[in-house]
Amino acid sequence: MHLIMETNEIDIIRNMRAEVMSRKDITGENLFLVWGYPTAIVLFIEYLALITWGENWCAWLWALIPLISTPLMIHYLRVDYKRTQHRTHEQSYILTLWIFIGIASCVGGAAMGFAGVFEKFFFSYLGLLCGLGCFLTGIILDFRPKTVCGVIASLLSIIPLFLQGDNWPLQLLVTSAIVVIALIIPGHLFKRYVREYYS
Protein backbone atom coordinates (compact mmCIF):
# COMPACT_ATOMS: atom_id res chain seq x y z
CA MET A 1 0.00 0.00 0.00
CA HIS A 2 2.81 2.36 0.95
CA LEU A 3 4.62 1.52 -2.30
CA ILE A 4 1.50 2.27 -4.36
CA MET A 5 1.09 5.69 -2.68
CA GLU A 6 4.73 6.57 -3.37
CA THR A 7 4.32 5.51 -7.00
CA ASN A 8 1.20 7.68 -7.35
CA GLU A 9 3.00 10.66 -5.82
CA ILE A 10 5.93 10.20 -8.19
CA ASP A 11 3.54 10.02 -11.16
CA ILE A 12 1.77 13.19 -10.04
CA ILE A 13 5.08 15.05 -9.68
CA ARG A 14 6.26 13.75 -13.06
CA ASN A 15 3.02 14.85 -14.76
CA MET A 16 3.14 18.31 -13.16
CA ARG A 17 6.76 18.75 -14.25
CA ALA A 18 5.92 17.66 -17.81
CA GLU A 19 3.04 20.15 -17.92
CA VAL A 20 5.25 23.01 -16.73
CA MET A 21 7.99 22.09 -19.20
CA SER A 22 5.52 21.89 -22.08
CA ARG A 23 4.03 25.32 -21.37
CA LYS A 24 6.41 28.00 -22.63
CA ASP A 25 6.61 31.43 -21.08
CA ILE A 26 5.72 33.77 -23.93
CA THR A 27 6.64 37.42 -23.50
CA GLY A 28 7.55 40.47 -25.55
CA GLU A 29 4.07 40.99 -26.97
CA ASN A 30 4.44 44.78 -26.88
CA LEU A 31 7.97 45.21 -28.21
CA PHE A 32 7.13 45.18 -31.92
CA LEU A 33 4.45 47.82 -31.31
CA VAL A 34 6.58 50.22 -29.23
CA TRP A 35 9.12 50.37 -32.07
CA GLY A 36 6.73 49.96 -34.99
CA TYR A 37 4.33 52.81 -34.33
CA PRO A 38 6.92 55.59 -33.71
CA THR A 39 8.98 54.49 -36.74
CA ALA A 40 6.00 54.30 -39.12
CA ILE A 41 4.58 57.64 -37.89
CA VAL A 42 7.92 59.48 -38.20
CA LEU A 43 8.41 58.13 -41.74
CA PHE A 44 4.90 59.21 -42.71
CA ILE A 45 5.31 62.71 -41.20
CA GLU A 46 8.62 63.15 -43.03
CA TYR A 47 6.96 62.10 -46.28
CA LEU A 48 4.15 64.65 -45.77
CA ALA A 49 6.68 67.37 -44.99
CA LEU A 50 8.65 66.65 -48.13
CA ILE A 51 5.68 66.70 -50.49
CA THR A 52 4.12 69.74 -48.76
CA TRP A 53 7.09 72.02 -48.12
CA GLY A 54 9.85 70.28 -50.06
CA GLU A 55 12.12 70.38 -47.04
CA ASN A 56 13.73 67.60 -45.06
CA TRP A 57 13.63 69.33 -41.65
CA CYS A 58 11.55 66.46 -40.27
CA ALA A 59 14.59 64.20 -40.44
CA TRP A 60 15.30 65.39 -36.89
CA LEU A 61 12.14 63.59 -35.81
CA TRP A 62 14.10 60.33 -36.17
CA ALA A 63 15.67 61.14 -32.80
CA LEU A 64 12.21 60.74 -31.24
CA ILE A 65 12.04 57.05 -32.17
CA PRO A 66 14.67 55.80 -29.66
CA LEU A 67 13.67 58.48 -27.12
CA ILE A 68 10.10 57.15 -27.09
CA SER A 69 10.65 53.47 -27.77
CA THR A 70 13.68 52.68 -25.58
CA PRO A 71 12.05 53.61 -22.22
CA LEU A 72 8.87 51.77 -23.24
CA MET A 73 10.88 48.71 -24.24
CA ILE A 74 12.74 48.69 -20.91
CA HIS A 75 9.43 49.06 -19.05
CA TYR A 76 7.83 46.11 -20.86
CA LEU A 77 10.94 43.95 -20.44
CA ARG A 78 10.75 44.55 -16.68
CA VAL A 79 7.04 43.74 -16.65
CA ASP A 80 7.71 40.51 -18.54
CA TYR A 81 10.52 39.56 -16.17
CA LYS A 82 8.29 40.13 -13.12
CA ARG A 83 5.64 37.92 -14.69
CA THR A 84 7.92 34.98 -15.51
CA GLN A 85 10.80 35.53 -13.01
CA HIS A 86 13.28 34.42 -15.64
CA ARG A 87 14.32 34.94 -19.24
CA THR A 88 14.29 32.02 -21.66
CA HIS A 89 16.90 31.31 -24.32
CA GLU A 90 14.37 32.30 -27.01
CA GLN A 91 13.80 35.69 -25.36
CA SER A 92 17.55 36.29 -25.10
CA TYR A 93 18.07 35.33 -28.75
CA ILE A 94 15.31 37.68 -29.92
CA LEU A 95 16.52 40.58 -27.78
CA THR A 96 20.09 40.12 -29.05
CA LEU A 97 18.83 39.87 -32.64
CA TRP A 98 16.97 43.19 -32.46
CA ILE A 99 19.82 44.96 -30.66
CA PHE A 100 22.06 43.81 -33.52
CA ILE A 101 19.52 45.06 -36.09
CA GLY A 102 19.32 48.44 -34.35
CA ILE A 103 23.11 48.79 -34.34
CA ALA A 104 23.33 47.59 -37.95
CA SER A 105 20.77 50.18 -39.08
CA CYS A 106 22.66 53.01 -37.35
CA VAL A 107 26.10 51.94 -38.56
CA GLY A 108 24.82 51.19 -42.06
CA GLY A 109 23.01 54.53 -42.26
CA ALA A 110 26.12 56.43 -41.14
CA ALA A 111 28.32 54.55 -43.61
CA MET A 112 25.90 55.25 -46.47
CA GLY A 113 25.78 58.91 -45.47
CA PHE A 114 29.57 59.23 -45.60
CA ALA A 115 29.63 57.34 -48.91
CA GLY A 116 26.99 59.66 -50.40
CA VAL A 117 24.52 56.87 -51.16
CA PHE A 118 22.14 57.28 -48.21
CA GLU A 119 19.15 58.39 -50.28
CA LYS A 120 19.65 55.57 -52.80
CA PHE A 121 20.01 52.58 -50.51
CA PHE A 122 19.19 53.29 -46.86
CA PHE A 123 15.43 52.75 -46.89
CA SER A 124 15.75 49.47 -48.79
CA TYR A 125 18.39 48.45 -46.26
CA LEU A 126 16.15 49.45 -43.33
CA GLY A 127 13.15 47.62 -44.80
CA LEU A 128 15.22 44.50 -45.36
CA LEU A 129 16.52 44.56 -41.77
CA CYS A 130 12.97 44.91 -40.40
CA GLY A 131 11.73 42.10 -42.63
CA LEU A 132 14.57 39.73 -41.73
CA GLY A 133 14.19 40.55 -38.04
CA CYS A 134 10.48 39.79 -38.18
CA PHE A 135 11.10 36.57 -40.12
CA LEU A 136 13.78 35.29 -37.72
CA THR A 137 11.67 36.23 -34.69
CA GLY A 138 8.81 34.22 -36.14
CA ILE A 139 11.12 31.24 -36.67
CA ILE A 140 12.45 31.42 -33.09
CA LEU A 141 8.97 31.75 -31.58
CA ASP A 142 7.39 29.30 -34.05
CA PHE A 143 4.78 31.99 -34.79
CA ARG A 144 3.79 31.76 -38.46
CA PRO A 145 2.24 35.27 -38.89
CA LYS A 146 5.58 36.89 -38.03
CA THR A 147 7.40 34.60 -40.44
CA VAL A 148 4.99 35.41 -43.28
CA CYS A 149 5.01 39.16 -42.57
CA GLY A 150 8.81 39.07 -42.46
CA VAL A 151 8.99 37.47 -45.92
CA ILE A 152 6.53 40.01 -47.37
CA ALA A 153 8.38 42.97 -45.82
CA SER A 154 11.75 41.67 -47.08
CA LEU A 155 10.40 41.36 -50.62
CA LEU A 156 8.86 44.85 -50.50
CA SER A 157 12.20 46.32 -49.39
CA ILE A 158 13.33 46.12 -53.02
CA ILE A 159 10.81 48.80 -54.07
CA PRO A 160 12.65 51.87 -52.68
CA LEU A 161 15.60 51.07 -54.95
CA PHE A 162 13.42 52.01 -57.93
CA LEU A 163 12.16 55.26 -56.39
CA GLN A 164 14.90 57.76 -57.15
CA GLY A 165 15.05 61.39 -58.21
CA ASP A 166 11.67 63.14 -58.01
CA ASN A 167 10.10 59.95 -56.71
CA TRP A 168 12.48 59.74 -53.75
CA PRO A 169 9.90 60.90 -51.13
CA LEU A 170 7.88 57.81 -51.97
CA GLN A 171 10.68 55.77 -50.41
CA LEU A 172 9.53 57.12 -47.03
CA LEU A 173 5.93 56.10 -47.69
CA VAL A 174 6.89 52.61 -48.86
CA THR A 175 9.24 52.11 -45.90
CA SER A 176 6.47 53.23 -43.54
CA ALA A 177 4.22 50.55 -45.09
CA ILE A 178 7.03 47.98 -44.70
CA VAL A 179 7.31 48.84 -40.98
CA VAL A 180 3.55 48.39 -40.62
CA ILE A 181 3.82 44.94 -42.23
CA ALA A 182 6.99 43.87 -40.39
CA LEU A 183 6.27 45.27 -36.91
CA ILE A 184 2.76 46.60 -36.33
CA ILE A 185 0.57 43.91 -37.92
CA PRO A 186 2.49 40.92 -36.50
CA GLY A 187 2.83 42.83 -33.23
CA HIS A 188 -0.93 43.04 -32.81
CA LEU A 189 -1.41 39.44 -33.91
CA PHE A 190 1.21 38.25 -31.43
CA LYS A 191 -0.26 40.35 -28.63
CA ARG A 192 -3.66 38.74 -29.20
CA TYR A 193 -2.02 35.30 -29.30
CA VAL A 194 -0.27 35.90 -25.94
CA ARG A 195 -3.50 37.20 -24.39
CA GLU A 196 -5.32 34.05 -25.47
CA TYR A 197 -2.40 31.85 -24.38
CA TYR A 198 -2.54 33.13 -20.80
CA SER A 199 -6.34 33.36 -20.55
Overall 3D shape: globular
**Arithmetic mean pLDDT:** 79
Biggest β-sheet: count, sense, barrel?
Answer: none
Oligomerization: single chain
Query: Which series of helices and strands comes N to C?
Result: HHHHHHH
**Strands, total number:** 0
Please work out how many helical segments DSSP would assign.
7
Question: Structural class of the secondary structure composition?
Answer: mainly alpha
Helix content range: over 70%
Low-confidence residue ranges? 16-23
The share of residues in extended strands comes to under 5%
Rg on CA atoms, Å = 21 Å
Report, as a whole number of angstroms, the end-to-end distance: 40 Å
Structure, explained:
It is a single chain. The protein is mainly alpha-helical. Helix content is 80%, strand content 0%. The protein is built from seven helices and no strands.
Concise account of the structure shown:
The chain is mainly α and 199 residues long. Helix content is 80%, strand content 0%. The protein starts with a helix and ends with a helix.
List its traits.
199 residues; mainly alpha; 0% strand
List the helices and strands and how they pair.
Elements (H helix, E strand, L loop, with lengths): L1 H21 L8 H23 L10 H21 L4 H27 L2 H24 L2 H13 L12 H30 L1
Helix pairs in contact: 2-3, 2-7, 4-5, 5-6, 5-7, 6-7
